[in-house]
Every structure is written in C-alpha cells, then in structure tokens.
Design goal:
seven-stranded antiparallel beta sheet; about 20% helix; nine-stranded mixed beta sheet; alpha+beta
Length: about 450
C-alpha cells in the first residue's frame, strides 16, 4: 500500500481566490427559462450514468435510462461491448421499451419493427412497400457514445463530447485502487423530491451543515473545520476527504458507548488501552491503519489490496460534475444522483444506490445509508415519493433522509426577497465553484 493518495494537481477547495464570484441567485432553482438553458447547454452534452454493468452481464441484456423527456437503451453486444441507442423507433418515433430487460431483439409495439442488438433493423412489416427501398439491414437506431468506468455504464447525447475518461479526469486515476466493478448494490432507491436538482449537488459539496443536520456523524467521521481536505478540479469535480475517526470537538456524553470503539475492537484493538479520548481518536486511527494493513488478507478484505493508508480508513466524499456524488468508504460505495423533473424545475428525482465490497464469509453488510442489508445484488429499484419522509420510513434517521428533510425548505427559501446570494465560509467554496462551472456550460464556455 502507498502512504497517501495523490491529489493530481487539485485546486484548494477552501480558497475563494479560485472563484470568479458569480452570484447564486434564487431563480436558478425555479426558473423554467434557466432549466431550458441547462437542457440546451448541459444535459445534452455531459456524460450520464445509465446504470451498473452488473445489470447487463449477457448479450441482449439492456438498460433503459429515461432522463427528462429522453430515453436511451444501453445493450450488451455479442462481443461483450455495450452500445447505446435512443429508445425511439426510426419508423415514427415510438418509445419501444419502458424498463431494463433482456431480449435478442427490440420490437416496437406500434407496428412491429424489429431491431437487432446492434441497432440494425431486422424486420419491417410489408418491407417491399417503401418507395425508398426495403429498410431492413440498412436503417439503424440512432446511436450515442457509450463507455464504462467504475462498474457504471455511461453515455452522452453529444456526438462531439470528449472521451469519458477525459471528462471524469482525475477520478479514474484517484480511485484506481478501488475495485468498483466488484461492489454489490444492496439498496436501490429512486425518490421523487420537491426541490430543484441542484440542491443535492450543493448539499454534497460541503459538510458545513453536518453538525446541525447530522449529529450522529462526528462520533465516527471527523468533520472539524480544519481537519478535512477540500479539493476541486477545473472540470467541476470536487471532494472532501475526511478522516473516519471521532471528532475532537463534538463528543458524546460520558457513559454513552462510542461507535469508534466497536470499529477498533473489530480489528483486535482494545479501546481501553488509550490514556485519553484524544489518544483513542488520534492514535487509535493510526493503529487502525496498521491493523488493517496487517490483517486484511486473512480476514478476506481483498478489496484493501491496492488501497493506501488514507483509503483504508477515510472517506473521500466525491462530487462528479454536475449531478453524481460517490462516497468512497473503506468497505462501501454510496452513489447519489439528482435528475431534474421533465416539467417542473422545483422537483427532481434523487437516486440512492448503496453498494458494498464482498468480504469472504459475510452474508450481510452495514450499508451506512440504508442500514443492515443482505450482501447480494438487489434486482429492482424502489420508486418512492419522499412525501415529507412518509414515503421512505425505513430510511428515517439516516443521513440521506435528514438531507432530504431540508430540501423543501431550501427550495421555498429561493423564492424569498430576503435571499439575494449565498454568504459562504471558506469551507463552502466548492458550492459556488459548482455554479460557476455550470455557468460555463450553459453560457457556451465549455
């Protein structure tokens, strides 16, 4: 294992000198005109995540990703590659399939046109009756650029888009030690939320709100203001790297069992052997690194093999511009995504995928956001309406639930004449940076 993670020429995510100072005005969250600019300048040009490669292991398996009013198919080919096509019949535009499945060919339900896995038309009723000539074998579904990274299938609607790995730079290099394609998705939610999609990226671009909104976090992730490392990159990606150890500022009351003690015991470290709380937090964190380096192989934590000292104990919470966030934890990956509602900019869909790395002998896992789950791939997505929390009672009290509880109040506040622009501390520099990169896209500078 290496000693530390490289930051690959990151900008300081706490330095406002890296900002232009563009205001974050309320209309960005509710204006239909601004939402149209996002569609024209952003959504039709970026790379989107369609789903997991694990969902389509065999030829003919396909994903359907519906984004606003567009729909895309990503189909596994006979040679193992994946190709993406618009989910629109070239005959008269009919949307052909509604959900992911597996078929040798895609048949349009309107007039029976059949398209092969390669997108080429195989059959059309009365094929001789076309003045242009028989379309079979000649006409193809309209194809999009498609690629994979991290166990995810990506596509873009822009034929001129830069390659995926360039778009993601430097994430593929930063996280090459994580065997992301082996992670098992143990919880899968899509939640309708009454807030603009940008609330989610704003929220995950800072941890300033944690003390107020997530009091359960400081006992096991140190989010003290000067503890975390804040990084951002010119393409708009950013992360907060936080030590997974107790905060020295926010302490549990005397006599309350400390969650970090259980983590230490799991790796044969006696928490009572430290002279003070500070020693347990700081030296215990270092001892945990050493124990994991020593014991990972015999305990079946094979995903630790190439991780460095930071990665086996800490939490690089990472935003991939514009709408994907991945929490890279030592034993878990948590995928968050927000996507705009097709009609109403004051609504969005929030995706939560909880993934865990398999460990030999373990049948369940602690998924962080969704609690204890069987360590097996879930087959279907849970579609819910947040509905003030009533739609997902099983997630009550979880960090992500607490974030969604704040969303509608933030959305309402964007309409107030009392709000003109965000007044940010240094640790929220990445919030304004996100909006400035968004401006670059919609104003044609990207």
């Amino acid at each position: 294992m290496n000693e530390t993670s490289a930051s690959f020429a990151a900008l300081d995510g706490r330095d406002p000198a890296n900002l232009r100072g563009n205001p974050i005005t309320g209309d960005r969250y509710y204006s239909k005109e601004f939402a149209q600019k996002e569609w024209d300048g952003l959504w039709t040009r970026i790379w989107h995540v369609a789903g997991r490669t694990a969902e389509i292991p065999e030829p003919g398996d396909f994903l359907v990703h519906t984004f606003m009013k567009e729909s895309v198919l990503c189909i596994r080919q006979d040679d193992g590659s994946i190709r993406a096509f618009y989910n629109s019949c070239r005959h008269r535009g009919m949307r052909m399939v509604g959900e992911s499945s597996s078929l040798d060919a895609i048949t349009c339900p309107y007039h029976g046109w059949r398209w092969g896995k390669d997108g080429v038309l195989q059959f059309a009723q009365d094929a001789h009756d076309f003045p242009q000539g028989n379309p079979c074998g000649k006409l193809s579904l309209k194809e999009l650029k498609c690629d994979t990274w991290g166990g995810f299938v990506w596509y873009t609607m822009d034929p001129q888009a830069e390659p995926l790995l360039d778009y993601l730079d430097p994430m593929p290099q930063l996280y090459k030690a994580y065997p992301m394609d082996t992670a098992v998705r143990v919880a899968w939610y899509r939640i309708a939320l009454n807030a603009n999609w940008k609330f989610v990226t704003d929220n995950f671009s800072e941890s300033y709100h944690t003390r107020t909104a997530h009091p359960q976090v400081p006992p096991w992730i140190d989010q003290d203001v000067d503890t975390a490392r804040h990084e951002m990159w010119p393409r708009g990606h950013g992360r907060t790297v936080q030590p997974m150890r107790p905060s020295l500022s926010d302490r549990l009351p005397e006599g309350v069992p400390h969650p970090f003690e259980a983590i230490l015991r799991q790796w044969d470290i006696d928490p009572s052997g430290y002279a003070s709380y500070e020693d347990m937090a700081m030296q215990g964190w270092r001892d945990l690194k050493a124990a994991k380096r020593r014991l990972w192989q015999e305990r079946g934590y094979v995903h630790y093999e190439h991780m460095d000292d930071e990665q086996i104990t800490d939490s690089p919470h990472t935003v991939i511009f514009p709408n994907v966030t991945i929490s890279f934890l030592p034993d878990n990956l948590i995928f968050f995504r927000s996507e705009p509602h097709p009609e109403d900019p004051e609504k969005c869909f929030f995706d939560l995928w909880c993934m865990a790395f398999p460990v030999e002998g373990q049948q369940t896992c602690q998924s962080i956001m969704a609690g204890e789950r069987p360590l097996r791939e879930v087959q279907t997505c849970e579609h819910r309406d947040f509905d003030g929390g009533r739609g997902i009672p099983e997630l009550a009290g979880q960090i992500v639930y607490q974030d969604m509880e704040l969303a509608e109040g933030m959305q309402a506040g964007m309409h107030s004449k009392g709000y003109e622009d965000a007044y940010l501390p240094a640790q929220e520099t990445r919030v304004r940076f996100f909006h400035e990169v968004l401006n670059d896209w919609i104003e044609g500078r990207r």
